[in-house]
Amino acid sequence: MNGTPRATLELRGVSKNFGSVQALREVDFEVRDGEVMALVGDNGAGKSTLIKCVAGIYSIDDGQILFDGKPVTIHGPKDAAKLGIEVVYQDLALCDNLDVVQNMYLGREARDPIFRLREAPMEQRTAETLKSLSVTTIRSVRQPVATLSGGQRQSIAVARAVLWNNRVVFLDEPTAALGVAQTRQVLDLVTRLAEQGLAVVLVSHNLVDVFEVATRISVLRLGRNVGVYEKGKTNQQEIVEAITFGTPAAEEPGVVA
Amino acid sequence: MSSAAPAEIQAAAEDQDSIAAIVRARWAAIRSGDVGSLPVIIGIVAITLFFSSKTSIFFTAVNFQNLIGQMAGPTVIAIGVVFVLLIGEIDLSIGFLSGLAGVAVAYYQQAGTGHDYPGLIALALAILTGIVVGFTQGSIVAFIGVPSFVVTLAGLLICQGLILKILGTEGVIGIQDKQINDIANYVLSPNTGWAVAIIFTVMLAAAAFGSYFNRRRAGLPTGNVVLTVVRVAFFAGLAFAAVHVCNQAQPRPGVPLVGLIVVFLVVLAGYVAGRTTFGRHVYAVGGNAEAARRAGINVKLIRILVFMISGAMAAMGGVILASRLNGISLESAGGGTILLDSISAAVIGGVSLFGGRGRVSGALFGGLIIGMIANGIDLVGYTDAIKLITTGAILLAAVTLDTVLRRRQAAAGR
Question: What ipTM did this prediction achieve?
């Protein structure tokens, strides 16, 4: 499955402290083009901290972040965006009062030299992007996102990542608040993202979802790596044990990295 | 959710084009809480009928001309209020800041004092005063995070204090400068009025049809062309009707210059809010500041700029008010109901106090309603007590409507 030998985004020995609390301790993590890497762990395992470090909201205290094999520094959300890293947060980060097009282009509006918005191309590309992702339940791209369902809103947030030709997309609990049909919709979307060649990181508590779409599974526990598991060579039981008790990486047969 | 029958976006757009479908969609929007300009239209008609039945002077050309002058100041201040409300903040300093700007414009043209500058320089200095005050308040709100309510309440007191200090000894400064007095008192010749109406119509049509053909070229849903024509015809009709009525007014027939200034500022501010990246970011900050920040928008800068706009508009409104009275006094400088009238105008015009919802044109329509009530009550001869009670009740009704509609829209959302 992994045609690309090199990781698109890689963290090496990354640590992050908040005062005396060590949220991340020498964590290694990687994701490759075209794969869905699940990131799982109990509450307080450091998943959110890891995302925020990559998104540029926190700066790392120690370790290295590599993008396409080259070391990079991420000081703010703009640096992350420039590299092509997009984070779709749990609380979606959409503006309810703005319509679909306006949200898709928020902060990166197409404009002419005198700051006038160029609505037509923005609307065209929004419609095209939604179509390419088979998001067909949205009647008009000019309706405010306040009128959309939870699944539709999640789809918009994910589609935003595709619109901007991002390389790496982090999805933070994308199905947490959704019903069965809408979860289906979003999981299909996750698969399509990877098929389009993006490196997708799925952060989730729901192991059923994880096993359905993920290629590999990284487990964090109390800010440390437990291991990375190939989906085909592990099972839910093993992952649950890794999440709750932590298993030394080297001793486990299912561990590949 | 309607995911059971997935419809193509294009197919869905096509059947939205018929007039019947548009009316149906509009009615559905009204029921789900998106009432648009409906309350304002009902309000204007009701107020006109009421005061016309009470006094024969209300529905006359000269009173219409007079109304334009009366409503100009609060309406211009309300334009700034719209921006502040759009980012979910409040600016209480605008009343006395407008008074301070009135004092400034009078002070900087005062003959024989060493600071008697030409009218336009005095005007620029007055507006600069507003911008500086707005920048200061906005910076404190944006960088330190003090609630705007408190910052601008302090600003209100400081502006009031400055007015007292400057006017203190004499209590009044007269304005002799012709340019400044012309701002609120000059009347265009009837033919100039017609020319303005024609230019307005041409620009309106160019904008509307430009956007229509732009979308059509791009293969996007355009809506029914009839609707575009009707909309342009409606506003063009209003412009010509207004010019016609003003040209009937005796003894000084013609459109007041200040009316033109108000329309110009409303169109300019509406353009900034609706068609530029800055305006888009203002709405985003009001809708979800955290989302705006994550999208890379400089939220602090937007907040500061909005308070500067508010300060500038308050100052311009203050200059108009001072110009109308040919001077500034302790009684007229920013006190009375100017603050509440301006905020009421924006809120009545459909701008939400909760941020992110509303349009700049709301300032004009809200200002018209507030102006009509004040004007009508004066003409009928009710007391100031009645005026205060009525204005208060209408503000309360507008805010209640906003809150109810907001809840309804949220409920209809999911």
Answer: 0.82
